Amino acid sequence: MSQKLLRSGHQVRVLDSLRFGGQALLPLLAEPGFRFFPGDVRDPEAVARALDGVDAVVHLAAVVGDPNCAAEPELAVAVNQEASLALLRAVGKRRMVFASTCSNYGRMADTSVLATEEHELRPVSLYAETKVAVERALLEAGHTVLRFATLYGLAARTRFDLTVNQFAAEMQVLGKITVFGEQFWRPYVHVQDAAAGIALALSSPREKVAGEVFNVGATTENYRKQDIIELVQQRLRRKAEVIRVARNEDPRDYRVSFDKIATRLGFKPERTVAHGIDEVVSAFESGIFRPSEIGA
């Protein structure tokens, strides 16, 4: 995200608590337009220092995902909701783009109908509940909300708890995968395309995006887990065992339309889930990632 904005000529500041380390920031340190501010989004003084002199804010800070929020619910509310609302007040009249999630659509009553930005929000997790609460306040203040599809793909800090990355890695390295809820739908978007969506929202005329919600992804990239497994199996050089189990822990089931961002802003992702699978498989085959990356 930061590299994309720097290459576009922006001056970029990053406020980060470094909870997961700072290695992903190392390539940015030599960039003349980059400044790093160590600090926590919950700290008003740190936020004020980082905001001084800026024109726009991209708010990414969060305890991300249902499992992480369930493990630390108080922290999730403090960071995702309370600190976000405080940041909104501190931003004032500056432009703000907020990273939200298509998980807000929760469990759709009818997945034959694609969820547009006006669709009923039915959050079924603490993570989505905090995002929905902040969305309302940002939209009332005239800011921009981006509801991202589920991310995948290689990045400076690649996550292997994301469905596409996890399935590709485990089936390649372990030769097997355990899956539940294989019939449930999700949309997916590559992390680089998600960054492109943020850059596009920032570069678009303010009147086109102010007070607007945009789903970020591609309508053709809605998949069930079983579809992803089939894609991985088609692209592996080895046979992988699929272990199916019954669980009730994740009731999310939603298919999403991304027509609004395509027609209004001209957004078109460059990558597909198939590309993401190839990235991950190639990274393990080449030895860039070792089995220990997934606990093997």
- Shape call: globular
Structural class: alpha/beta
CATH topology of the domain at 55-158 and 188-222 and 252-272: Rossmann fold
**Radius of gyration, CA atoms, in whole angstroms:** 19 Å
Q: How much of the polypeptide forms β-strand, as a percent range?
A: 15-25%
Give a quick summary of the entry:
This protein has 296 residues and is of the alpha/beta class. It is 38% helix and 17% strand. The model has no long low-confidence stretch (mean pLDDT 94).
Tell me what the structure shows.
The protein contains eleven helices and eleven strands. It has 296 residues and is α/β, with parallel strands linked by helices. Strand 4, helix 5 (126-140) and strand 5 form a beta-alpha-beta unit. The protein has a domain at 55-158 and 188-222 and 252-272: Rossmann fold, CATH 3.40.50. The strands form four sheets. The protein has a four-stranded parallel sheet, sandwiched between helices. Residues 3-217 form the NAD-dependent epimerase/dehydratase domain. This is NAD(P)-dependent oxidoreductase.
